[in-house]
Amino acid sequence: EGCRYNVMHVAAKENQASICQLTLDVLENPDFMRLMYPDDDEAMLQKRIRYVVDLYLNTPDKMGYDTPLHFACKFGNADVVNVLSSHHLIVKNSRNKYDKTPEDELHLDPASQQKVCV
């Protein structure tokens, strides 16, 4: 129940790029995944890793169908946008309830002069 946020939604909203990166590093670590699935062969383990990482990166919330990348863009959190958008499994063109992509939602403080790659 609830809004269906995961750690990436919360970290994206709170401008915690290091938490986003740490989460990805842990989820993509075969040793971590092997703790849960000790009998998997390497191919199955990699498939599970891709599946779980995709869920964390691309699952929309229940209210506005916003992904973590939507959140990072909406709140102007450039470091988080860069971490998320640089991952090879991120879906950059997903649309939320208002038919907006993350890039459509991008709001950055012009004074920050940060480069963002969406």
From TrEMBL:
GO terms for molecular function: protein phosphatase 2A binding. One of its GO terms (cellular component) is endoplasmic reticulum. Signal peptide: none annotated. This is ANKLE2 isoform 10. It comes from Pongo abelii. The lineage of its organism: Eukaryota, Metazoa, Chordata, Craniata, Vertebrata.
